[in-house]
Amino acid sequence: MPPHEAPPDSWRWRFRARPGRIIDGDTVVMQIDLGFRTHMEQPIRITGVDTPELLSADPAERVAAQEAKSHVVMWFDKHRHDAGLLWPYTLNTDKDKMTFARYLGSVTCSEGHSLSEALGQREYL
Question: In the chain, is it the N or the C terminus that has fewer CB atoms within a 10 Å radius of its CB?
Answer without folding.
Answer: N
